[in-house]
Specification:
The chain has 211 residues and is mainly alpha-helical. The chain has a single domain (2-210), classed as Leucine-rich Repeat Variant (Alpha Horseshoe), CATH 1.25.10. 73% of the residues lie in helices and 0% in strands. It contains 11 helices and no strands. It has helices spanning 2-17, 24-32, 34-42, 50-66, 68-74, 76-86, 91-108, 116-125, 144-174, 180-192, 197-210. The chain starts with a helix and ends with a helix.
């Protein structure tokens, strides 16, 4: 699990730090056949192959990056419906779906706004509850993918659409305990949403003082 966490974080940092070099011919072909590619890709949603499901989740953000407007108008609803269904599956599918949702948000930005309440509700359900009386319920430690998704959402639309929601989640996020995924997430939120810096700093101080 520690290796998987490091791989996710390393890829996240590398992806945004270095530019992508693409083939002009490949991009032109993709643009010409964009609708066919999207339709055929989403047509594999019901496949029972784990390899197909993994490939599908890797392709969807790339298609959104190729043509944000067309993807958002024609395929985003189907893609998000599929990914939200994947969140109810086994751990590996859930982790991949969370990261895929985060990358989609980065590429389509504000177009994901109408789907954010359901995404945040799922994230909240995978974090410790804020209500002290509810802490008696058993809540499993969240996957590292939860923090990757929060990081990507913060990068994509945090300041414009999720500032208050993420502030509300901070207490639950900090209750998880320090980890590489959590520290990366908090650094990203503090960078992208400056108004959260004070809350994050105070939360970390409380965490360190109580450890």
């Amino acid at each position: 699990m520690i290796g998987a966490i490091k791989n996710i974080i390393t890829y996240l940092i590398f992806y945004f730090q270095y530019p992508i070099v693409e083939s002009h011919a490949c991009r032109q072909l993709t643009a010409e056949h964009f609708d066919d590619i999207c339709a055929n890709t989403l047509g594999q949603r019901l496949s029972r192959s784990a390899h197909v499901q993994s490939a599908l989740m890797g392709i969807l953000p790339r298609l959104a990056a190729c043509d944000r407007t067309r993807f958002s108008e024609r395929y985003l609803s189907s893609a998000l419906s599929y990914l939200m269904t994947c969140l109810q599956r086994k751990d590996k599918d859930r982790q991949l779906a969370l990261v895929t949702i985060g990358y989609l948000a980065v590429f389509i930005e504000g177009d994901i706004a109408q789907y954010l309440p359901k995404i945040i509700d799922f994230i909240r359900s995978n974090l410790p509850p804020k209500d002290p009386s509810a802490k008696k319920r058993s809540v499993a430690a969240p996957d590292a993918a939860v923090f990757v998704c929060i990081s990507l959402l913060g990068r994509a639309v945090g300041r414009s659409h999720l500032k208050h929601e993420l502030k509300d989640l901070l207490e639950s996020i900090l209750a998880v305990g320090l980890s590489p995924a959590l520290t990366t997430c908090l650094r990203e939120l503090a960078t992208r949403i400056p108004s959260l810096k004070k809350d994050i700093a105070e939360g970390l101080l409380r965490m360190l003082c109580s450890s």
